[in-house]
Amino acid sequence: MASAPPGNWRRGWPRMVLFTVLLLSLVLVINGCGRKAQAPAINPGASEGPKEIRPLLYDRELDRVIVYYLTGDGRYLVPVTVNFNPTREVAKIAVEKLLAGPQGDGLKPVFPEGVKLQDIYLLNNQQTVYVNLTREFLDIKDARQADLAVKALVLTMTNLTNVKEVQILVEGNKVPEVAGVKLDAPLHRPDSVNSLLKDGNQKGVQVFFNDADARFFVPVTVAMPPGSSADNLPRAAVLALLAGPPADSGLIRTIWPGTRLLDFKVEGGLATVNFSRQVTGYGGGSAAETALLKSLLFTLTQFPDIDRVQILIDGKKKEYLPEGTAIDKPLSRPELLNPLNH
């Protein structure tokens, strides 16, 4: 017959059981704390698994961003630079500024009043940003307004580093469309901001003209001018600036009528533009000089191989333009595009 366990062992047995239970509980708690938070998939299908939500934060603080509003006549989207207190939540601030609309005269909001941002985030390691809006977004019934609003949001977001596409959500869910504009899949950056092409077969180039009030620079895609080639888009863009906007566009030309392009070349990031003497036909006025320079610089520096522009007049370097702007050295892109103080 087996002997009974020693008395000390019997008295220690409950303590050992309690210690084992506590140890197992502690291990489970530690393992649970080490897991990353999981979120349910958006409109999950049978094959979809959980996805990790990550906040969309920059690696450093920024104090400005480009957002898109409407011109005063409501015809065109305008990129504007808005300032705010330094933050890493640049994407969140950008959407909130976009939804709130511009402060001051000359521009109109793209979104109807009442649309708010609920959340903005990334899933896993994707470069798709999820923008979750309130249900007021679905109140848009006009197809053109919906198209402009969606385009403005996608343009604003894809200006940010590493954002490739945008998935719009409403109250946390995908919606198939709003006023006929499809939203069931992530949206890529559109090919143009404001297209003035008459049909889909036309070749176009983007340039910057003034809005109807000559207060803002508006990017538009116009048809390739006669004598230009798609193989030299920067030169084609300069010719389009000289031709001026289409008569029915409501936009204002930025280079004096009659100006001719005598020569154009690009070497080592420098575009040299040789204009005829008519380029200074405005004779003075800071607004005219600003329009000439900024429209030319914004237009040419949009091309990756151009970061500076040297202006020649009748083949020669001039020290100054009529209002005193020095042009004897290459000019760089202005730091701010249509700046607004918010």
Describe what this molecule looks like in 3D.
This protein is α+β, with helices and mostly antiparallel strands and 342 residues long. The chain has two domains: 54-188, no CATH class; 204-334, no CATH class. It has five helices and 17 strands. It has helices at 7-34, 90-100, 143-158, 233-243, 286-300, and strands at residues 53-55, 62-71, 77-87, 107-108, 117-123, 128-133, 165-170, 177-178, 181-182, 187-188, 204-210, 217-223, 261-267, 270-275, 308-313, 331-332, 339-340. It has a five-stranded mixed sheet, covered by helices on one side. The chain has a four-stranded mixed sheet with strand order 4-2-3-17. Helix 3 links the parallel strand 6 and strand 7. Helix 2 (90-100) packs antiparallel against helix 3. The relative contact order is 0.10. The model is unreliable at 1-11 and 16-49 (pLDDT under 50).
Secondary-structure blueprint of this entry?
Elements: H1 7-34, E1 53-55, E2 62-71, E3 77-87, H2 90-100, E4 107-108, E5 117-123, E6 128-133, H3 143-158, E7 165-170, E8 177-178, E9 181-182, E10 187-188, E11 204-210, E12 217-223, H4 233-243, E13 261-267, E14 270-275, H5 286-300, E15 308-313, E16 331-332, E17 339-340
Protein name: Lipoprotein LpqB
Pfam families: Germane
Organism: Neomoorella thermoacetica
**SSE-based structural type:** alpha+beta
What's the overall geometry? Answer: elongated
Order of helices and strands: HEEEHEEEHEEEEEEHEEHEEE
Roughly what fraction of the amino acids lie in strands? Answer: 25-35%
On the 0 to 100 scale, the average pLDDT is 87
Low-confidence stretches: 1-11, 16-49
Q: What percent of residues adopt helix (DSSP H or I)?
A: 10-25%
What's the domain count? 2
Protein name: Lipoprotein LpqB
Pfam family, one: Germane
Keywords: Lipoprotein
Domain GerMN: 91-179, 234-322
